[in-house]
């Protein structure tokens, strides 16, 4: 299972916990959690069959499928779009005056697409701002005052800032500036592998949901498990805040239904991809996801 980021983060907690608790082993699955060498490699691993499963963004699915890669979303991870531009409380970004500003960002499909749409709402292009690309973390760029704002989500960069004493950061949400309010994160699979391994995929999903439930019910233990597995990944305070914010997206009574997707989740995202020529071509919304693995529980 290839991940969305080269460095381990708290988003991985459900499957790290499921692995530690033996949920995958009991299902006969030997899950290998693979950090990609860079943020662009997640779809490459899935598309070439180097990985069967992935934790990715919904935009990764759109781009991969537009290029003919066999990638499909099998579950959403959270609800809505909490991505945007984050700035310091002592110098909050006035988005109406964003032209010429310096923005720290990542070299992933989601960040570029979202920022392009946001800027278009102001009649601007990516070339109208100065971009500083971070390999794995934009937060130091903001704290060191090297940029005016950074791209990120409330439960990653936002949690990181809060863990370092900056809990009153300013947030300009993308969904308020023309970007679809679609879920950011998804679990995905190589569709060719999926068609031939339905039983294994079902067992993976069931064990993952079991891990998610356990992590929500036992947050401190979940954080301990993550930090024991990846001791150099994040601070305890950051991981605690990140998992607290992430688990809140599911609620305490999480079920398979909590992860189901719909055409509506994808329609606005695909429309934006077409309108802004982010993808060469797009399929129907229903071609981008399946709920088949979420019907048993």
UniProtKB/TrEMBL annotation:
<dbReference type="InterPro" id="IPR015168">
    <property type="entry name" value="SsuA/THI5"/>
</dbReference>
<protein>
    <submittedName>
        <fullName>ABC transporter substrate-binding protein</fullName>
    </submittedName>
</protein>
<dbReference type="Pfam" id="PF09084">
    <property type="entry name" value="NMT1"/>
</dbReference>
<dbReference type="GO" id="GO:0009228">
    <property type="term" value="P:thiamine biosynthetic process"/>
</dbReference>
<feature type="domain" description="SsuA/THI5-like">
    <location>
        <begin position="13"/>
        <end position="222"/>
    </location>
</feature>
<dbReference type="InterPro" id="IPR027939">
    <property type="entry name" value="NMT1/THI5"/>
</dbReference>
